């Protein structure tokens, strides 16, 4: 059995960044101490061409995240789960990428 001993001198003071603090009253935390992230905007759209099909993705901005942390998600899944994001036609113009093209 290993015993861990920490001395006060081993602990360092941590200075937090107040801009990264998320008010807990804005987030519904469940019993397992997790929460569901809510998408608020579609930032971009792209279509990747594979050999036999095309795969559409959308770049999603999530609540309590900054633009740099937006994620690419499957467009079909997002339309099923969050149809309201696609109602007003506000998705940016489509970008098409081919995985087999030469640059």
UniProtKB/TrEMBL annotation:
Annotated InterPro entries: Chromo-like_dom_sf, Chromo_domain
Pfam families (UniProt xref): Chromo
Annotated Chromo domain residues: 41-86
Protein name: Chromo domain-containing protein
